[in-house]
Design a protein that fits this description.
Elements lengths: L1 H36 L21 H8 L2 H11 L6 H20 L8 H21 L6 H38 L1
Helix pairs in contact: 3-4, 4-5, 5-6
Length: 179
């Protein structure tokens, strides 16, 4: 009798064990199905929707740009910061940051002045702020747009100062020739 009692306890524990495994297995399957059904929502927000026209270069500036391919790449990449998703904006802002570093390093001698260097530094700072915001887990739309607008303004200021510097140099050269 004692033997039958032990046998029934072993049978009972075995049955409870298999039921626990079976229930646990069903639970894991349900968890797996629940995890498969959770799909991350892709951010489809577009940034820089407002059109951006690269500022017009003076004839003198165009002449210098012909021999400055880094500037042409800078212009092309800056025009690509329009109507883009945050992932594209992250990639493109990083590319433009690298291009701006190259721009500063390859500045033609005629443009090597404190004001032009300062304008490039402002562009780099604006780009770093924009890129930093794009790297956040959930970037703030208003912050991204503000950084993008400030970057565009700094590019306009840079081109304006390039044009002004070259115009001033031409006027100074004409004045010296007349004297």
């Amino acid at each position: 009798m004692h033997y039958l009692h032990n046998l029934s306890l072993i049978g009972l524990f075995t049955a409870v064990f298999f039921v626990a495994i079976a229930c646990g297995g069903t639970s894991e399957g349900a968890d797996a199905q629940a995890q498969e059904s959770i799909v991350p929502i892709k951010d489809t927000t577009r940034y820089g929707v407002e059109p951006f026209q690269f500022p017009e270069l003076s004839a003198q500036a165009e002449t210098i740009i012909e021999d400055w391919p880094v500037f042409k790449d800078f212009k092309r990449i800056s025009l690509n910061l329009q109507n883009v998703a945050v992932e594209d904006l992250k990639f493109r802002s990083k590319n433009l940051l690298v291009q701006t570093d190259s721009l500063a390093a390859s500045l033609p001698e005629i443009l090597d002045s404190p004001i032009i260097t300062a304008r490039l530094l402002v562009i780099q700072t604006r780009l770093q702020l924009l890129h930093q915001e794009t790297k956040k887990g959930t970037p703030k739309t208003q912050e991204l747009e503000t950084h993008l607008t400030n970057l565009r303004l700094s590019i306009e200021e840079f081109v304006l100062h390039v044009n002004e510097k070259l115009e001033k140099d031409a006027l100074d050269k004409n004045r010296r020739n007349k004297e």
